[in-house]
Amino acid sequence: MTKVLICPVDYEHRCEEGAAMLRAHGYDLRFNPRQRGYLPNELYPDIADVEAVVADNEPWDEASFRAAPKLRVIAKIGVGMNNFDLEAARRHKVVVANCAGINANTVAEHTVALLLAIVRALPQLNAGCRRGKWTRGIFHELTGKTAGIVGFGAIGRKVAEKLAAFELRLIATDINPNHKEANRIGVQLVESDTLWRESDYVLLHAPYLMETHHLINDTTLSKMKDGAYLINTARGPLVNEAAAARALASGKLAGMASDVFEVEPPPANNPLFACENYICTPHSAGDAVENMQANGRATAAIILDYFAGLEPKNRQA
Prior knowledge:
Elements: E1 3-6, H1 11-14, H2 16-24, E2 28-31, H3 40-46, E3 52-55, H4 62-66, E4 73-76, H5 86-91, E5 95-98, H6 104-119, H7 122-130, E6 146-150, H8 154-163, E7 169-173, H9 179-185, E8 188-189, H10 192-198, E9 201-204, H11 218-223, E10 228-232, H12 241-250, E11 253-258, E12 278-280, H13 289-307
Parallel strand pairs: 1-2, 1-3, 3-4, 4-5, 6-7, 6-9, 7-8, 9-10, 10-11, 11-12
Helix pairs in contact: 2-13, 6-8
């Protein structure tokens, strides 16, 4: 029987259709027994004899591939590949594919929810009411403001479609601009400096690459409007968190919301946690029932296709 390690927590229930597909083909499924992701020293013994993996955010580097001599294919749940050394995968002849595009809608919904929550101070108002306070605020409408989308891929485009209903001016920047989609949605493609300068709301949807590490830093923050808002539902290391905390404390940023952190889970002394104008969620933007089931089907299909001699969809290595 083909042995498959399932790394995402609670895959058997949250992605039950994928687990059922693999079981129906006689695969031997082994599940992550923890209520959290694997640490490297925990991963190595569990991959020693497996031929396939459904991966999450655990490290897939040279050491991991060396610890898995029988491994032939990895199906990455979600889209982010920053925990993969794809060159190492190629050296070890391991096929890697992800679930690109599947989580776009649910992450876009979460992005809009975070934007509304930080602009309207919903967590703070809720907490005040629960403490018996009746402290009301005064806020700006989204209508008529400018939203700048950094990264105009599948998620960025979905965010733009949803924000269009708020009658915002929409601008975006991307290293490979999709002019057709921009015209369809009504988005103006601009250079990065224009986006920093003109956006009331900056929304990050860029991939994490060497060149995007700390894309948000003291320099880029200084180019933004005074009182802008920053939303990050992409990858934590896109933002220099210390720089963002300074901008929040000074009022340069009116607020920030993120679903991701430079280190996950974040330490209690993360500088952002000292800022009352900051809200966060625990990397849960993709945690919708519909999205998880779709990812389950997609990850199972990658493994089934590989062992059937077919090219897996969304192959990365």
